[in-house]
Amino acid sequence: MKGESQTITPARTVRGVVQLPGDKSISHRYAMLASIAEGPSRLENYSTGADCASTLACMGTLGVKWERKDDGSIELQGHGLRLAAPAEPLDCGNSGSTMRMLSGIVAGQKFTSEMIGDESLSRRPMQRVITPLSEMGAQIESLEGKPPLRITGTALKAIDYKMPIASAQVKSCVLFAGLYADGVTRVEEPLRTRDHTEVALRAFGAQLEQKSIASGAHEVRIHGGQRLRGIESRIPGDLSSAAFFLCAAALFPDSHLTLPNLLMNPTRARLLDLLMQMGLRISVTQLDQIHGELVGSLEVEGGQLKGITIAGADSAALIDELPVLAAIAPYTEQGIEIRDATELRVKESDRIAAVAENLRRMGAQLDEREDGLRIPGGLTLHGAELDSFSDHRIAMAFAVAALRAQGETFIRGAESAAISYPAFFQTLGQVAQELPR
Ligand code: S3P
Q1: pLDDT tens by residue, 274-327
Q2: pLDDT tens-digit profile of 345-354?
Q3: pLDDT (tens digit per residue) in 266-276
């Protein structure tokens, strides 16, 4: 499948029902916590993406027995806090979440683990987890702060850690390590990031305290030595994957999509407010809670498509959705400006450069800045030969932009979509109604 191209033909509108696979962020956390819990867990609607399969494979290498059932659910037998020494490196593939969050768990073990990743992951910054874990007592070798990581676990010391950047992965790493520490570990984040780890830890029976502190900062405290117990759960549909369909619906005034069982966690749902401000009509029905995570069904209809500026805490809250918002910016009335998003440069690709390059190939004008982009609106783009830059979110973002372009678009490396959403192109094909030729 390497180097597979996808051809996207322009659409007249998008209509239909989209069932999203389980949320990637929650799937990683449930797989890790179920592994260090006691007793069995059953995780329905586990993410179908390659990244979450990497997490399960790593847990298997650490001695955890798990099985994928015919209905796609994962049955996993908890190993308890103490895992088994791995006979081979923990291969995290393309997944930054796997490497960063799991490093917090292996740092508390009585053995040495080697964590490796693919070419893209091997370029990504890991100092952000090396610093707090070293402070807790783990010994970590890396290639100047990049993978591979060699982590020698130990009896960890609890720390009070003030995170220099807002990162849910780093927060999760420190909280997981905190389970193995002697006392209370405190993590302070400069902005509130997604709270799935806190919600999931409670679901698996842990106790933690959290509160807001000055000027948007937030703290979480966890006591070491708590034992977890397995759960049975159904993972809500992935809101960041839904973003591609929501943005596709925003492109057409007569679109109509239904998205059942979607994650509605308020720390992830900023996208919905923003798209409503831009003109998408969204109604939420059947709100429910599963193990502390809010779930709802969405009905969305396109309307006007206004421009917007995204900056500050919004850029952090929308970090995974910014590529697709940028990709549809030329079709908005006033354009989109994105600021304070330097983190986009150290994702699976340099997402600012990748978006700028593909948009230019489609005939857009824009300003590329160190921390974002300014993309004027009111434009018609033309189909072009684009690149995924081996990044799932870039492949999917430009499939959406191509729906409103004039002429066909070819996306090289489109197979990258399978990192989070293997059925993406098939589902898009089902809801996109082609223009008559
Ligand atoms: C994630 C956090 C974000 C996000 C990533 C998933 C998570 O990364 O971009 O796709 O599940 O915690 P950072 O923690 O690096 O911001």
Answers
A1: 999 999 999 999 899 999 999 999 999 999 999 999 999 999 999 999 999 999
A2: 999 999 999 9
A3: 999 999 999 99
The residues assigned a catalytic role are 320
Q: Which domains does the chain have, with CATH numbers?
A: 5-22+236-434 (3.65.10.10), 24-233 (3.65.10.10)
Q: Would the pLDDT of 181 be above 80?
A: yes
Dist. CA 381 → ligand 1 center (Å): 31
User: How far apart are alpha carbons 139 and 240 in whole angstroms?
Assistant: 35
From residue 118, alpha-carbon distances to 53, 58, 93, 94, 146 in Å are: 14, 14, 5, 6, 12
Q: In the numeric block, which tokens belong to residue 116?
A: 């490796």
Residue 2 pLDDT greater than 80, yes or no: no
The Cα–Cα gap between 251 and 229 comes to 45
Give me ligand 1 centre to Cα 272, in Å.
18
Instruction: For residue 417, give every residue at least 6 positions away whose Cβ sits within 8 Å of its Cβ, in sequence order, or none.
Output: 388, 392, 395, 396, 424, 425
Q: Could you tell which of 172, 319, 321, 352 is best to mutate to test the pocket of ligand 1, judged by most ligand atoms within 8 Å of the CB?
A: 319
Ligand 1, closest atom to CA 24? 11
Question: How many other C-beta atoms can be found within 10 angstroms of the C-beta atom of residue 343?
Answer: 18
Ligand 1 atom nearest to CA at 347 = 9
